[in-house]
Structure formats: structure tokens, C-alpha cells
């Protein structure tokens, strides 16, 4: 939809229509605020509930109950007075809360009294030899194709890495009739021992644990080759992928395939918060940058809040609760909700949020990505857009570059279409290792608008 001139100012603008954004927008609208929800997809749902409102019975059965549960959240949003602006790619957000976005080939803008950022997560980069070959994708990208269009591989596929999404996609593929050549799991015995320190949280989140164990049992019951503790992953091939090689212990193994799906977790999408220059800190448990926010999701920049995986990975259910808390804070600031009512409404939300977050330390410890799969060897590409290798980054450090923005100036690393989304964490950790310091000391790319590519024609229109 196109906003009329009279609608150019709203009480609350929500960026992102995943579980956090849907819950925030619906809650704020129910509390009497004028709300606009901006999202790059045409249909609400985000990555987790992508296209759930239009999914047929067959697709719902393939994707499972957790996906289907998103329909209730979408319905709550659509029944509220919040307005949905789909197909809107936000390319700039100013500290004055003016949001610029692309829609239908032209740039438009809207001003908000408050902004709730619900930008969600990105898949962590997985820079191993051969990861840029045709035939190599991320598991998340493959799942998007399954959710949005019901597209699944016609040939056997190999899934490699770690994290809950890897098992979930394998389970969904089995239900869709996809042939899986192998699952190559990088989780090692030491990871299980480290995770045991957080066993109390796992017990508190026993429902999630049982769900994941059920997925693994289904996968093993299907007779799929399952390799644990894999190291030294490399995709082989010339013009395209032909095999995945890896070690289990001292044994070198090789699985032939022309489709490899890689995954080692997700990290917050921090492009907008970084461009706004709000404070971020290095999260050593999740190995990523997270914006500093209080327990309502309020950022230090006046009128800005954040909810969901964009403020730290917590999962879809927790994201929806954080979205509601942010909306309560926004309604209170706008004068629509007394402090006592805000706090009373927040109590059950916070209790539910604690229950969902109990298991997080256990998962973070168990599925911690391996250093060798985060910090690649010299000959491995670190920045795909500009084809900059890890070795080139190390040579720039030897010349005196101390951070990502300096290496960007020397090599264009991080200046491509993704604007550092795919390489940012890799660049930070490569520099940190080369300098012998922590990623927190190295810092991250200095992000500038446009957040998304925009042509001069679109800007002029």
C-alpha cells in the first residue's frame, strides 16, 4: 500500500514483520497508537513464519506445527488497526526517526514518534574452502525456498554444520520426500561437556529439548548417514560443487554431492542499529555483536526500541514476547498507558520470556561454531562480494590496519551489495586473531546508509 500524505507521521513505526514485529505492531495498535509495519516481504511472517498465511495444508504438514503456529500471530496483526506496508526495503533510518524505504521502484519516507526495530537474524557466515562454489547454499536459504514456494531439491543433498535449524530442515526435507545424502555434524564431545554446565536451563526448557531429540530420532530412523564431530570441512569441485570432504577423528571422509547446505547458527542483523551509531557490545557466548538495550528493549537513542533476534538470538517465541514488551514501553512513553498498567501487563510476559530463555545458554554452548569454520585459512575467500581472501586481510593487518573499516579502505572488503552482512563477523575475527586481541577490541564495520542498494533513479523518483 502507499501511505497518503496525511499518514506520513505515525505514533509507532515497526521495521520487520517477523514474530517480534507482528507482536509489537499488534500490541501497540491495540493500545490505541497509530502504527505502520514496514517489511521487505509482501506478506507478514518474517523468516520464521514466511508466507504462513497462504501456506496450503500439504506445506503446513511438511513444515510442522511450530511453523503453523505463526498463523495466529499473523491473524492477530491483520485484525488490528496497524497498517502493513509490504515490499518495502528500508534503506535508511535517521536519528530523528525518519524511515526511508523503497517500494514499487520509488523511495518514500515516513516519520514516527517512536521506532521499534525488529530486524531479526542473519545466518552466520561459514567460510570454508569451496563455500563460494555454485551448488553451495545456506540451510536458511534452502528453507526459505521451501516455505515461500514449496521448492525442494530433486537430487540428494548434504547438510553440514551445527545448530537446531540443520536438524529441523533435515526433518522437513524428509517429510517433503527429499533425499538426504548425509548429515555432517560439527558438534563434538567437548561441546556436550561444555553444555552440561548449563543443564539446569536445559531441564527448565525440557519441551524444546524433547522436540530436538525427536527430530534427531526421526533423522536417524530414516537411515541417513550421520557423521558427528566433523572437522576440516571443505567443498570440492571446479566449476561447481562435486563433494564435501571432512575428518571424523583422524579419518578423512568424502561424500559426493552437487548440493551442499551449510549452517552454523544465526546472528543479529545489526545493519540499522550500527548505522544509527548506537552502542554495541561483543557477546562472547553467541560470538556476535549485539546492541545495548534495557529490559524493555529501549536503546540509548531517544525514541528507539529493539525486539527479537536483532537484539540477541533468542528464538521466535521469545521474540514475540519481546515485541509485546517494547510495545508496552512505547505506549507508556506516548502517554497511552500509565506506568502501573504497563508494569502489570509486563509481568506475565516477562515470566514467559524467562521460561523461553532458560535453554539459551545450553544451546549457545552446545552449538558454538568452531574457530576453524569462523576464521578461515589464507586462501579462503572472506568477502564474497569483493573476492577478498582471509590472507589479504592478514597482510593488511601486518601493514598496520587495526579494524574492519581500515581494511575496507584498502581492499573494498565490505563495500559490495551485502554491505558487510556476509563477511562482517569473519573480518572482525580474522583481524582479532592476526592481532592477538579480542573481537571486542577490533570492532565492526562502520555501517552507513543506504542499508540496501538504491539506484539514483529510485532515489529521484
Describe, in plain words, how this protein is organized in 3D.
The protein is an alpha/beta fold and 461 residues long. Helix content is 38%, strand content 22%. It has 18 helices and 21 strands. The protein has helices at residues 19-30, 57-63, 65-68, 70-78, 139-149, 164-176, 189-195, 199-204, 206-221, 271-275, 316-333, 339-357, 360-366, 390-399, 404-411, 424-435, 439-442, 456-460, and strands at residues 9-15, 35-38, 83-85, 89-93, 98-103, 106-117, 121-123, 136-138, 157-162, 180-185, 226-227, 230-237, 241-248, 251-256, 260-264, 266-268, 280-283, 288-291, 304-306, 381-383, 388-389. Strand 13 (241-248) and strand 14 form a beta hairpin. The two termini are 17 Å apart.
Q: Helical element count? A: 18
Give the proportion of residues in helices. 25-40%
Give the CA-based shape. globular
Biggest β-sheet: count, sense, barrel? 7 strands, mixed
Helices and strands, with pairings:
Layout: E1 9-15, H1 19-30, E2 35-38, H2 57-63, H3 65-68, H4 70-78, E3 83-85, E4 89-93, E5 98-103, E6 106-117, E7 121-123, E8 136-138, H5 139-149, E9 157-162, H6 164-176, E10 180-185, H7 189-195, H8 199-204, H9 206-221, E11 226-227, E12 230-237, E13 241-248, E14 251-256, E15 260-264, E16 266-268, H10 271-275, E17 280-283, E18 288-291, E19 304-306, H11 316-333, H12 339-357, H13 360-366, E20 381-383, E21 388-389, H14 390-399, H15 404-411, H16 424-435, H17 439-442, H18 456-460
Parallel strand pairs: 1-2, 1-6, 2-3, 6-19, 8-15, 9-10, 9-15, 10-11
Antiparallel strand pairs: 4-5, 5-6, 7-16, 12-13, 13-14, 17-18, 20-21
